[in-house]
Amino acid sequence: MLAVQTEHDFERGVAVLREQIDAKVASYFSSCVHCGLCAEACLFYTETGDPRYTPIYKVEPMRRLWQREHTFFGRLGRALGLGRDLSADDFANWQEMTYDSCTLCGRCSMVCPVGNDIAYMIRRQREAFAASGYSPEGLQGATTRALEIGSPMGVTLKALEAQIVHVERATGLAVPLDKAGADYMALLSSMEVINFPEYIESLVRIFDAAGVSWTLSSKAFEATNSGIQIGDSGIAAELVSRVVAAAEGLGVKYVISPECGHAYMAIRWDGPNLIGRPYRFEVVHILELLDQLRAEGRLKTEGIDERRLTYHDPCQIARRGGVLAQPRNLLGMIAPDYPETADTGRMNWCCGGGGGVSANEGAEELRLKAFKRKKRQLEALGVETLVTACANCRIVIEEGLEHYQMDVSVTGLTELLAEHLVGKGAGPTHGRSD
Predict the structure, then answer these.
(1) Given pLDDT bands bounded at 50, 70 and 90, which one contains residue 320?
(2) pTM, to two decimals
(3) Nearest CA to 261 among 391, 69, 145?
(4) CA–CA dist 232, 354 (Å, integer)
(5) What are the Cα distances from residue 361, in Å, to 58, 222, 358, 367, 400?
(6) CA distance 335 to 330
(7) DSSP letters along 164-180, please?
(8) How far are the Cα atoms of 46, 140, 201, 279, 398 from residue 409, in angstroms, in the given order?
(9) How far apart are CA 358 and CA 370, in angstroms?
(10) Is 358 helix (H, G, I), strand (E, B) or coil?
(11) What are the CA-CA distances from residue 44 to residues 62, 194, 263, 349, 404 (Å)?
(12) Geometric angle at alpha carbon 45, from 39 and 50, rounded to 5°
């Protein structure tokens, strides 16, 4: 039975770390020119000035093992008793760099002059740290809840059904559950169920107006994959398999990834590799679907949002997922002249809470320091409202704004579209439930 490793087991960690040094990792270490460009691309380095947060340095334990066992001089030194092997202290000291100071955003990989994917390397290193128990307690708890309850936040089917009742009362529309033969099966993140139920209400209104055949699944409604965040491929595969079984059992044609960047990467790109086979359905992000409905004339809005607003690109959706034009097409329907931040699109700066960092209480102080990068972006534009398409980005940004006492509101793009919707499902969306 799958379980989260909570006790420290250094020897197991080294064995798993050794397995993670594949041909790609070896080539990356061999080709690194130590230029330091990756440091300037990482908000944890730029906002602290601490060289420990240089992205390539974060995988130093794996580099040491590679050098010791895969290079001529490393093997020679080991044979002569020179240098030292990895120790438990290395794992303890690098837990912060592996988890607290990396959101797996991939910005460092974008600027590497020799094409090294450092985010990939950190993801591989997390496999070893998770296997040896050197992972944050917050992520351990979230992953255990995902396995045992089905949600990293402990959200049960009863909690979802309670929110569905509220949404149906507010809209006068039915929320389909376990509807076999529907075209689309929508996934949700726990944050959307508990913190931002207006997202669910927005889906109901938009899909009704556009005539979309859809459903939720009682067996697999959670999109978040904490197995990937903590670095356990076995658990990650199990969580993907639950979604796949539910979708294929209902016979849907598409699975909709919600406003959650990490969930999109997990189910669309990592999922088939994790379970070892292609899906019998397609995965689309909610923004991809909404933009398709817009292009087909099935999503219509009215009115212009007069607020000064801008858009925040979630890393896993934009930089690593390629969903760039769609949110701009959609936001342009109601805010045609909105300003972009200086660094936007593929090179936008992370909110600071992705990759499981927001679930790690020990990383909070560092995360708030890193938020200064987003703070400067917003101050430079003088915006009143920030629009995004990721529930995790949204709550992390709200916490950062509160910490720095900034008077900026945050909203989801799907919700904003629903507020301007024309059609059968049109009507005001309601705020979050407490």
Answers:
(1) confident
(2) 0.93
(3) 391
(4) 17
(5) 20, 22, 7, 10, 14
(6) 9
(7) HHHHHHHHS----BS-T
(8) 25, 32, 20, 38, 8
(9) 12
(10) helix
(11) 20, 29, 23, 11, 17
(12) 110
Q: How far apart are the first and last CA of the chain?
A: 36
Residue 247's closest CA among 211, 276, 284, 290? Answer: 284
Structure tokens at 242: 């639950």
Beta bridge partners of residue 177, listed in sequence order: 216
Place of tokens 């979630």: 314
For 339, phi then psi, to 5°, come to -85, 150
**What crossing angle do the helices spanning 88-95 and 60-70 adopt, rounded to 10°?**
150
> In this structure, are strands 309-311 and 385-388 parallel, antiparallel, or unpaired?
parallel
CA dihedral 331, 332, 337, 341 (to 10 degrees): 50
CB 24 within 8 A of CB 120: yes
The pLDDT tens digits of the residues spanning 350-382 come to 999 999 999 999 999 999 999 999 999 999 999
Write the CB contacts of 48 (distance below 8 Å, at least 6 apart in sequence).
Answer: 366, 369, 370
Q: How far apart are CA 27 and CA 21, in angstroms?
A: 10
Q: How many residues does the chain have?
A: 434
CA atoms within 13 A on the CB side of 65: 21
Amino acid identity for residue 364 in this structure: E
Q: 282 φ, ψ to 5°?
A: -105, 150
Helices (H), 186-255: 190-194, 198-210, 226-230, 233-250
**pLDDT tens readout for residues 50-106:** 999 999 999 999 999 999 999 999 898 888 888 889 999 999 999 999 999 999 999
300-301 vs 421-422, strand pairing mode:
antiparallel
DSSP state of 150: S
Structure tokens belonging to residue 408: 């900026």
Q: Which two tokens stand for residue 419?
A: 């507020």
Distance set, CA 392 to CA 190, 209, 262, 353, 356 (Å)? 10, 27, 9, 7, 10
Quote the CA–CA distance of 170 and 151 in Å, as a whole number. Answer: 25
In the sheet that holds 385-388, the strands lie side by side as 309-311, 385-388, 409-412
CB 239 within 8 A of CB 146: yes
Report the DSSP beta bridge partners of residue 283. 255
Nearest CA-CA partner of 101 in 159, 27, 48, 61 = 48
